[in-house]
Amino acid sequence: MQSPSYSPEEYQKLPDVPGVYKYYNEEDKLIYVGKAKSLKKRVASYFVKSTGLNLKTRRMVKEIRRIEFTIVNSEFDALLLENNLIKKNQPRYNILLKDDKTYPYLLLTKEHFPQLYPTRKLIPSRGTYFGPFASVKAMNNILELIRSLFTIRTCKLDLNPYKIAEQKYKVCLEYHIGNCLGPCEGLQGEPDYLKDIDQAKHILKGNLGIPKAYFKSKMQEAAEDLAFEKAQRFKDKLDLLEKYQAKSLVTNPHVTDLDVFAIVSADKFAFVNYLNIKNGAINITKTVELKKKLDETEQELLLTAIFRLKDQFQSDAKEILSNIDLDDPIEGLHLTVPKIGDKRKLVELALKNAMYYKKEKALLSGKAKEKKNRVILQLQKDLSLKEAPDHIECFDNSNIQGAYPVASMVCFMDGKPAKKEYRHFHVKTVEGPDDFASMTEIVGRRYKRLLKENKPLPKLIVIDGGKGQLSAAVEALKSLDIYGQVPIIGIAKKLEEIYFPGDSFPLHIDKKSESLRLIQRVRDEAHRFAITFHRDIRSKDSFKTALDTIEGIGPSTSNKLLKHYKSLKKIREASEEDLAQIIGKDKASRIINFIKQESR
């Protein structure tokens, strides 16, 4: 069900039942998915008491332009639907679980004499998938075990009974060394082959007890028949299986199937370790990082991790152990916080893993900060600056034979791009292709505005260009009476030479220096930003000009479309019906016909 339009009063019309709600912004992009016992009460909480909301949530609420909701039968169904929608759409204000790896699976193919092999592609029609495995090593260990225990073919032949009967195939080396019983030549029947497949399935599902009992009974049967060599082969397989099980951490034979989750928090992140226990042994272990978006509680973060990890690793365990309790029970699942015994030891193990991950994250963050500070301090030393240049601004301009003159300014804070501070400039006072005059204009406009708004000046200004461009920028600083307050340099592209105002000879920084690489990165980013802006303007102007040539379509119509669709690409992709809602059927038809002719 959908709400046809949005206003803050819309929540009053929502039903008092469980469901999932979706928030959309002005561009009709999904920005948040939430679950609720009561849609009416939960959605109302965002609008009734704005003083109780944190800054991020208030910012999200300001962006909301439309609400959709889906009614479900229970809160549990709402949790499942919320998880699916978040995983599919990745809304910007929902908790981000950083774990974008494509995990390996083992595929048991759906065919005569099924094959078993690893894959990362999930195509359900091909057969049954087992996994995902947290590591390739864990997957290979199981695959190696199965191939040691059973004679499952490794070839890719199509073993259709008709082809086998026509004797299209010959046995390969695998047959001669005893790893295959030759089904390709009809030397092994399919029913006998499928017995091994059935036992392999139990191992893949973590049920080691069944194949152990199978090999034990086969060993006893062979011994009773006085076939001692055969009995020894089964005993070897049984020993191999028991050795494999011994490698797993056995918690307790009385502990059956369960999931363990432990969570620890930092300011902006939380770390969750997940253990899947199958028949008393740890089957899967995984630690993930969750990025907080709206200052979520540990309970909210844990709930997110439980559903996403259980879904990812296809766990059907009904019992969950954790180091914290949830505010509300989860339908169909039983969560406990054990205080003593083996279950408590499992939680402590998971907690130890989560704490280690948090510690490693902090250590890596500290190293990154140390490197960042080192580079900035090195740049200060190389350029003989009074202060560390932790705030750098760089200018570049772009035009083609004087047409569409534009410029860009990028900002780096602490050695990293601060994209919210990037600025585009249309050159207003310069006619013709005069890069020097353009540079004087945009640098002057930038710092005139900063002075007017009483904002801090950068610690270093970088000009993309040599002496001429640098001199033009210096003129702008002199006109504002701030020359000498802010260090300014130019970087010439060809030899990567650094120029200072008034110096005839450039400074050459070691090409392998981290400080030079930082200046180059700042310069390249300014150039990219300017070129992109210039290209967009040319494209927009040419398309608008072309639209204006259509009879009945003027500048006001093309501006109206650009205001609504935000980009030319979206206008071209829009259907005639969508365009008609904005500019009417007649004009929409004219534009669609023009676009069709343009694409021929």
Structural account:
The chain has 600 residues and is an alpha+beta fold. It contains 18 helices and 19 strands. The radius of gyration is 33 Å and the shape is elongated. Helix content is 45%, strand content 18%. The two termini are 41 Å apart. Strand 5 and strand 6 form a beta hairpin. It has 5 domains: 87 residues, 3-Layer(aba) Sandwich (GIY-YIG endonuclease), CATH 3.40.1440.10; 103 residues, no CATH class; 103 residues, Nucleotidyltransferase, domain 5; 146 residues, Nucleotidyltransferase, domain 5; 50 residues, 5' to 3' exonuclease, C-terminal subdomain (DNA polymerase, domain 1). Strands 13, 14, 15, 16, 17, 18 and 19 form a 7-stranded mixed beta sheet that branches. The protein has a 6-stranded mixed beta sheet with strand order 4-10-9-8-11-12. Strands 2-1-3 form a 3-stranded antiparallel beta sheet. One of its GO terms (molecular function) is excinuclease ABC activity. It is found in: Cytoplasm. The UvrABC repair system catalyzes the recognition and processing of DNA lesions. UvrC both incises the 5' and 3' sides of the lesion. The N-terminal half is responsible for the 3' incision and the C-terminal half is responsible for the 5' incision. This is UvrABC system protein C. Its main location: cytoplasm.
